[in-house]
Amino acid sequence: MTIIVVILILISAVLATSWNYILKKVINQGGDSVTLYWSSSIINLILFLIPFFSFFLFFKINLSGLFFAALSGFFMSFYVIFLSKSYQHGDLSLVFPLTKITPIFTLIIGIFLLNEDISPLQISGIFLIVLGAYAINSKKFTINNLFKPLVSLKHQASFLAVLAAIMSALYGLSFKLGSTKINFFMLVYLTYFFFVIFYTPFLSIKKNNLLSQFKKFKTQIIAIALLNFFSFNLVIIALSISTLSYVFAFRQVSILFTVILGIYLLKEKYGTIRIISSIIILIGLILVSVF
Predict the structure, then answer these.
(1) C-alpha dist (Å) from residue 155 to 66, 132, 151, 262, 287
(2) Cβ neighbours around 14 below 10 Å, total
(3) For residues 228 and 105, what is the distance between their CA atoms, to the nearest angstrom?
(4) Which residues in 21-166 belong to E strands, given as ranges?
(5) Per-residue pLDDT tens for 192-244?
(6) 45 neighbors 200 (Cβ within 8 angstroms)
(7) Helix (H, G, I), strand (E, B), or coil: what is residue 267?
(8) 47-62, pLDDT tens digit by residue?
(9) pTM of whole model > 0.70?
């Protein structure tokens, strides 16, 4: 992996961390998470229009590709719903790392549905991810608190974050299958298009909520959209230079960035435990993704 790829991924990770931080901060200020993300997604959809039509001139859309784009958009809509709802009930430094344990479910799906092999290092990675995800729900590293995370996992924030990770795995699987049927960039845009369609019914239309939320948080909504858009495109550029496993693994450094932002800027509690737990999750993700 070249220095250029490393720089691209690090910038992408910082941008991803930033838009999640802004989203959580706006939610703390009374913003509606579903409406906020939907508004930013519409902006992203518009930003993708010009390159999409450019690709449309050279690549055809077939029914199988369209099906997997719709399926990816469906799972993506539930991923965002669970993510945004979990932010309403829990801290950024708790929710974000838990939503990134996706490789556990991806690996399980790959083993049982795609007959993929699993290496000893990947098994070790799964153990570390589970350990980190369990520990991040702790308040103290003591014997008396050993089983308390089991109770915490029942709470809405942790439960919804894990559901988001499962939806992300299903979204990733359908997207992977779709990428063999249709041009990658067109698949991205069509997935986004279907995502907006499936996501829209979750909007609250009471008291003209959409318009009032946009007026109140328009700067933040535009920032979330732009940060999300450029973060994603930097990953696409990195993927064109390096392999998927290395890009995915290295980008997970966003976990640590996000936890630090949550603790030091949003003043969230249990900083030491969450930083240590996020590092454990990060190591586990690297083992699962690279080896």
Answers:
(1) 37, 17, 7, 19, 29
(2) 15
(3) 24
(4) none
(5) 889 999 998 887 654 457 788 888 899 999 999 999 888 888 877 777 676 65
(6) no
(7) coil
(8) 888 777 777 777 777 8
(9) yes
